[in-house]
C-alpha cells in the first residue's frame, strides 16, 4: 500500500485510524478527504498535519467528481465518512441518506472506475438491530435496523455487497461495536458524561440506564481495521467487538468513580425514541485472522477518562461553540423533567 485515501478522516475513529496507520506503515501516504461537518475537526490531526506523508482535501462524499479527483492515484480507500449520531437522525435523517448511502455509492463507483485495489467500508453493529449475548449476530444474519441512522448505514453496507458481486470490486466491510477513546465528539454518551462530570454538570442517562453497549477501545478497533484492509476477503463483512458490554448506568458510575465525583450528578432523563436495548456480535471471523482486543472495560474507560481530563481545551472549544444549541435542544426539556439518581 503506497497511497491511501481516508474519507471522513477528521472525525473520531478516522483521525485515530490515520495516526495509527502512519505509525504502523511508514511507507504509506495518507490523503484525508473530509467535508468538515460539525463532527470533523482538523485539530484531531494537528500532530501529523506537518508530516510529508499526510495531505488533506476538503470535499464531500456526496460530490462524485470531488471523490474521484481525490482518489486518483490511490491504491486503497477506507470510508469512514458518515453522519454518525443516532439522536440527530431521529430529528432529521436527510443528511444521513445523502452521506451514508449516496456518499458510499460515490466512493465505491470511483474505486471501481479508477481500479483501486482495496476498499474498506466502515459499517456498524447497528445494522443487525438488537441482539443478546445468548444470540449474537453473525455476519450473514439478516439486517433489522431500527433507527434512521442504522437504516442509512445498512443501505451503504448493502451497496458494498452489490459492488463486490456485480463489478468484482475488492471491497471489505467492517461492522464495529461502540468505540471509546480520544477525540470523540461530545454529543456521544461517554465523552458527554466525562466532560459534564469534569464541569460538575448533570450526566443525562436515558430511561433507567439499563441499555447495554460494548466499549471497544478505538485503538483496538483501528488495529482490526488495518488488518481487514490488508487481509480481509473480498465481498466479506467482519464484526468487531471487545466483549466489554455494560449497562449505561454502570458506565456513568464508573466515570464518576474515576473522577472522584458524586453519583448525585446522574439524572435519569426521557428515553431515546426506539432505543435499542443491546447489540451483540459473534466475531469468530475476525478472531480467525488473529485479532484480539487488548483493552478490557476498565482499561478502556481509564484511558478514555484520562484523555478528556488531560485535554480540556480540545472539548471546551467544541462545547462552547455550535454544540451549545444542540445540547439545549436535546437536553433542555429532558433535564427540566429529570429524575434524580437513587441507588
Ligand atoms: P464522526 O461523526 O466522529 O466523524 C465523521 C467524519 O465524517 C467527520 O470528520 C465528518 O466531517 C465526516 N463527514 C461527514 N459527512 C461527510 C461527507 N458528506 N463527506 C465527507 N466527509 C464527511 O464519526 P465516527 O464516530 O468517527 O464514525 C466513523 C465511522 O464509523 C462512521 O461511518 C460510523 O457510522 C462508523 N461507526 C462508528 C462507531 C462509533 O462508536 N463511533 C461504531 C461503529 C461504526
Ligand atoms: O454501536 C455502534 C454505534 O455506536 C455507531 O454506529 C454510532 O455511530 C455511534 O454513535 C454509537 O451509537 P450509540 O447510539 O450506541 O451511541 P451513543 O453514545 O449516542 O449512546 C450510547 C448509549 O448511551 C445508548 O444506549 C444511548 C445512551 N445515551 C446516549 C446519550 C447521548 C444516554 O443514556 N444519554 C445520552 O445523553
Per the principal axes of the C-alpha atoms, what is the gross shape? globular
Distance between the termini: 53 Å
Which architecture of the domain at 2-179 and 216-240 does the CATH hierarchy give at level 2?
3-Layer(aba) Sandwich
Listed once per kind, the bound small molecules are: nicotinamide-adenine-dinucleotide, 2'deoxy-thymidine-5'-diphospho-alpha-D-glucose
* Strand fraction: 15-25%
Strand order of the largest sheet: 3-2-1-4-5-6-11
Mean pLDDT across all residues, rounded?
A: 98
Summing up helix and strand content along with how strands pair, one would put the structural category as alpha/beta
Q: Level of helix content?
A: 40-55%
CATH class of the domain at 2-179 and 216-240: Alpha Beta
Number of helices: 12
As residue ranges, the low-confidence spans are none
CATH superfamily of the domain at 2-179 and 216-240: NAD(P)-binding Rossmann-like Domain
Amino acid at each position: 500500500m503506497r497511497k491511501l485515501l481516508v474519507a471522513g478522516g477528521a472525525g473520531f475513529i478516522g483521525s485515530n485510524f490515520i495516526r495509527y496507520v502512519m505509525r504502523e506503515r511508514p511507507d504509506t501516504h495518507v490523503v484525508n478527504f473530509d467535508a468538515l461537518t460539525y463532527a470533523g475537526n482538523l485539530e484531531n490531526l494537528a500532530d501529523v498535519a506537518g508530516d510529508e506523508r499526510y495531505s488533506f482535501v476538503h470535499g464531500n462524499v456526496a460530490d462524485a467528481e470531488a471523490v474521484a479527483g481525490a482518489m486518483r492515484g490511490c491504491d486503497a480507500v477506507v470510508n469512514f465518512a458518515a453522519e454518525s449520531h443516532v439522536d440527530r437522525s431521529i430529528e432529521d435523517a436527510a443528511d444521513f441518506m445523502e452521506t451514508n448511502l449516496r456518499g458510499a455509492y460515490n466512493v465505491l463507483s470511483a474505486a471501481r472506475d479508477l481500479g483501486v485495489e482495496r476498499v474498506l467500508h466502515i459499517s456498524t453493529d447497528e445494522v443487525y438491530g438488537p441482539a443478546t449475548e445468548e444470540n449474537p449476530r453473525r455476519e450473514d444474519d439478516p439486517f433489522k435496523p431500527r433507527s434512521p441512522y442504522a437504516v442509512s448505514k445498512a443501505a451503504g453496507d448493502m451497496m458494498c455487497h452489490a459492488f463486490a458481486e456485480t463489478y468484482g470490486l475488492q471491497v471489505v466491510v467492517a461492522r464495529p461495536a461502540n468505540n471509546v477513546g480520544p477525540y470523540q465528539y461530545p454529543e456521544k454518551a461517554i465523552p458527554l458524561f466525562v466532560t459534564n462530570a469534569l464541569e460538575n454538570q448533570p450526566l443525562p442517562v436515558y430511561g433507567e440506564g439499563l441499555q447495554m453497549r460494548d466499549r471497544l477501545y478505538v485503538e483496538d478497533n483501528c488495529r482490526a481495521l488495518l488488518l481487514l484492509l490488508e487481509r480481509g476477503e473480498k465481498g466479506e463483512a467482519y464484526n468487531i467487538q471487545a466483549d466489554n458490554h455494560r449497562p449505561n448506568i454502570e458506565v456513568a458510575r464508573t466515570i464518576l468513580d474515576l473522577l472522584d465525583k458524586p453519583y448525585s450528578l446522574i439524572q435519569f432523563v426521557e428515553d431515546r425514541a426506539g432505543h435499542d436495548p443491546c447489540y451483540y456480535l459473534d466475531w469468530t471471523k475476525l478472531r480467525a485472522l488473529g485479532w484480539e482486543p487488548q483493552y478490557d472495560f476498565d482499561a478502556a474507560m481509564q484511558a478514555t477518562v484520562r484523555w478528556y481530563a488531560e485535554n480540556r481545551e480540545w472539548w471546551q472549544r467544541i462545547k462552547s461553540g455550535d454544540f451549545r444549541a444542540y445540547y439545549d435542544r436535546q437536553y433542555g426539556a429532558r433535564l427540566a423533567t429529570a429524575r434524580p439518581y437513587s441507588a
